[in-house]
# Entry
Amino acid sequence: MKKNYDALARQILDQVGGHENVGNVMHCYTRLRINLKDRGLANIEELEKLDIIGTQFAGEQLQIIIGNEVNEVYNAFINLMGMKKEKVIEEKPNRDIPRKQHTIRSVIVAMIDGIVGCMVPILPMLIASGILKAIVLLIEKFGLATAESSTIIMLSFVADSAFYFMPVIIGGFAAKKFGANIALGSMLGAALIHPDFVSLVTEGTSLTIFGLPIYSATYSSSVVPIILSVWVMSYIEKFISRYSPKSLRALIEPVLTIIIMIPLTFSLLAPLGAMFSVGFANALTWFYGTFGMIAVAIFCAIIPWVVMLGMHVGTVPISISSIAATGIDKIMMPAFLISNFAQGAACLAVGIKAKKADLKSLAFSSAFSNVVPGISEPGMYGVTLRYKTPMWGSMIGAASGGLYFGITGVGAFSFLPPNIFALAGYVGSGEYSNNLLNTIIGIAIGMVVAFVATMFMYKPKMN
# Structure
C-alpha cells in the first residue's frame, strides 16, 4: 500500500510543536532534519508511533529517520509549510523560551549542525562529480578514448569544476543556512578563488588590505574557510541592516558588509579555516601513519555509531579535503563502504535465521538497501541495533574488512555514496592498479565475517 506522504507530514508537524516551532527543515539521504525553536515541544513518544524508522536529537535539530522515502516526505512537509505562505522560514527567537547556557557539547553540536547544513545541499553535486570521474577512468581503462580526447577533456573539467568552485557554491548555501544574503555569500566564495588572487599567491606576492597582511593560501576545493567567513558575515550583515536608514539600506548593507568582510576573510577567517583543515588533515594523517591498518579497522567498526549520532554528513569535508590534497581518501569513504556491506551481510543472516515473516521481510529488504542504494538506517534501526548481536556481528565484519583495507592501502578516488556503484570510484592506475581488486576482496572478507558472526551470535528465540 502506497504511503500517504501528506498525512505523514501533517502528523510530523503536529508532533514537533506545529508550524510556529519549526525554524527550518532540510534532509539528507534518509533523515528529515528539522531545526526546532524549542525542542521541549516535540512529542517524541508520539512521533515514534508514526510510520517512521526512528528519531534522535542533535542539539536543537530533530532528526526523523524516514529511510529511502525521505525525499517524498520532505516535499510533502515543505508543501505543508507553504500552505501557510511561509516558504522561507525565519528563525526568530521565542522570547518566552529561556536562553540556554552554552556548554562545550552544545558548541560542538552547533558547529556540526552548521557544517551539515551547508554540506547536505551540495551532496548531489559531489555525487555527480564522482560518477563523472569514475566514467572517465573506466573509459580510459578500457581504451575507449585517450586522455587527449575532447570528450574526456570535457567530462574531466566539468567533474573538476564541482571541487574547484566549491567555495562559491558552499558560500551561497552557507548564507542560506545562516540567514545571510545568498549572493554575498557566493561573492565571498568567488573572491577566494579569483584567478588574480590565485596567481598572486602562486607567485609569492605579498598582499595587504588596509595595512593588514593577507595570508597567502589557495582556497579552491576548501570547505571550512568559506563556511567560517559566511557565518561571521551573517552577524555583520544583520548588524548593519539593523542600524541602516531604511531608505539607504539596499545600498549601504551589501557594500559595508563586503568592505568589512574583505580584511576579516583574507587576513583572519579564511586563514584560520585553512589552518584548521590542514591541522585536522595532518592529525588524521598522523593517526593513519601511526596506527596504520588498526586505525582503518577501528574507524570501519564505529561507522554505525557515527551515523546514529547524525555526524556522517560532517565527515564529507574531511573526505573532500583528502581527495583534493592527495587524490585519494583511504579512511572515510572506504570505512562507510565496508560498514554498509557488513551491515547488509548481518541483515541477510538475520533474515535467514528469523522465525517471523515480517522480520524476515524487513531483514532481506534492509540487506538490499545497505548494498545497492547504500542506505543503512532501515537495517540499522530495524534489525542490527534492535537485536544487538547483529550489530556486533556487522562491526566485527567491518573491522575485519577494514583491516585488509588498511594493509593493502585501499582508497577512494572520488566522492560517491557507499553502495555497490561506488566501486567505480576505486578504479586506480599505476601504484593503485590493484586498488579495485583489493576493495572487492576487503568487502568480501567483511561480508563473510559479518554473516558468520551474526549467524553464530543471533538467536531467533530472543524475538
